[in-house]
Amino acid sequence: MAPANGTYLFGATLLYKINASTSARMSGRLVLNGATEIRGSLGEMSATHVSLATAIWLQTMVPLTAGDTVELQGYFRVADGYFAADHTSFWGCKVG
């Protein structure tokens, strides 16, 4: 939750872990207040994945009002997979 009005920098890393198929297509995004995709935060890896090597890095800046929330969402299409929990990160800081 944003403690104060201002501009915030956010980043995230999602690392792919195979379930049954490397044909999974991994995506991630940052979402404002549980509903709105933050512009510039959507990323997808559409090449063939390598377990514990294929990753997505997201980074964007967004103006927030005190009380706003930002969350990281990751999902798969084509086939399922996992996000390696010990290599997933999400961070943010106020820059202005």
UniProtKB/TrEMBL annotation:
This is C1q domain-containing protein. It comes from Pararhodobacter marinus. SUPFAM superfamilies: TNF-like (SSF49842).
